[in-house]
């Protein structure tokens, strides 16, 4: 049984190459999803955003290409390729694309609810 999907095992790949930026869209590709963890690749077209929301788990983003703006609990963070940010569980956060960008999102959920 494979726990990571939508990628070939034992293949060296560029994560950024696994999703494409499409004008006017946010494209996502789920790599893993279970009650404990979610791993998703995203490609944002310039000007696209995910509005303010929160999560039951801690969310860590890794920007793969371009620049993304993340707002956590009212504070803005601008991340470049190679930079990461942890958005704590239950804190409101949002994502905005000042330019085309790609990111890897990993959410770790509590083991007890």
What's this model, at a glance?
Helix content is 0%, strand content 51%. It is mainly beta. Strands 1, 2, 3, 4, 5, 6, 7 and 8 form an 8-stranded antiparallel beta sheet that branches.
Question: Oligomeric status of the shown chains?
Answer: single chain
Major beta sheet summary:
8 strands, antiparallel
Please, how many helices? 0
Helical residues, percent = under 10%
- Order of H and E elements: EEEEEEEE
Write structural notes for this entry.
The chain is mainly β. It contains no helices and eight strands. The chain has strands at 26-33, 37-44, 49-53, 58-72, 75-80, 84-87, 93-96, 101-108. Strands 1, 2, 3, 4, 5, 6, 7 and 8 form an eight-stranded antiparallel β-sheet that branches. Strand 1 and strand 2 (37-44) form a beta hairpin. The radius of gyration is 14 Å and the shape is globular. The protein starts with 25 loop residues before the first strand and ends in a 5-residue tail after the last strand. The mean pLDDT is 95.
């Amino acid at each position: 049984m494979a726990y990571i999907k939508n990628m070939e095992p034992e293949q060296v790949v560029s994560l950024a190459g696994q999703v494409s930026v499409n004008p006017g869209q946010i494209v996502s590709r789920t790599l893993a999803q279970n009650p404990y963890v979610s791993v998703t690749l995203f490609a944002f077209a310039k000007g696209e955003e995910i509005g303010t929301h929160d999560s039951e788990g801690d969310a860590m983003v890794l920007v793969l290409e371009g620049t993304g703006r993340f707002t956590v609990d009212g504070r803005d963070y601008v991340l470049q390729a190679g930079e990461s940010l942890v958005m704590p569980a239950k804190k409101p956060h949002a994502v905005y694309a000042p330019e085309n960008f790609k990111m890897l999102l990993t959410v770790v959920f509590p083991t007890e609810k």
